[in-house]
Amino acid sequence: MIEIKGLKKSFGTHEVLKGIDLTIQDKEVVVIIGPSGSGKSTILRCINYLEVPTGGDIVVDGISMNDAKSINAVRMEVGMVFQRFNLFPHMTVLENIMLSPMKTRHISRKEAEETAVSLLRKVGLEEKKDAYPNTLSGGQQQRVAIARALAMKPKFMLFDEPTSALDPEMVREVLDVIKALAKDGMAMAIVTHEMGFAREVADRVLFVDGGYIVEEGKPDDVFSHPQEERTKEFLSKIL
Ligand code: ADP
Ligand code: MG
To answer: ABC transporter domain spans which residues (predicted)?
Structure first.
């Protein structure tokens, strides 16, 4: 479980997050929506300490962020996938997936390879294991990036606009992988502009604006019957 209490984050004098309270239960899929610049990425980045909160507390699986020693422990529990895939270009697909588990979890090459191959099967790319990233399509690269994050055996996954950088015809294959993970019971937070997908996969949708969670609820309630003016206005622009 991830518990976020009173999370605040400022960049200089700009207070981006003014007090975010959010609990993500095991197996829960939370989708975060909101205008550009509202702090969606910052929330995700605070969860695995890519940004240091200026206030509040985040507890991941019982590990409090206010204890600096726990940063690495938390990062092992939380996998993150970004808009850009950031695969290492000089390594094969398999090597990209094996690297972190061997380095930080100290598992053997053989075990790392077995895990990597089975994850590639899961994302439908087993036959690409010896390929280099630049020979893959954007959608394939993003699926490798997901497999790479899963290789650390995280308890939670964070997705920050995982399909925003993709050509339209590749969006579905990536969303389908994420959907399968959700079905397997992986707890996750997803920032996305794919509202159809959000409806399919989310247990809960959060609308973030002005530094706060303005509205949250089941996808059908938030999308079809938004209560807050700001949510209505945002949805009217994108739906
Ligand atoms: P979103 O993901 O909702 O589009 P972000 O979380 O990326 O929004 O950014 C929220 C605000 O914080 C924006 O105004 C952005 O310019 C600012 N911001 C984000 N990261 C930094 C940073 N490292 N330094 C300064 N300002 C930042
Ligand atoms: Mg963002």
So the answer is: 2-235
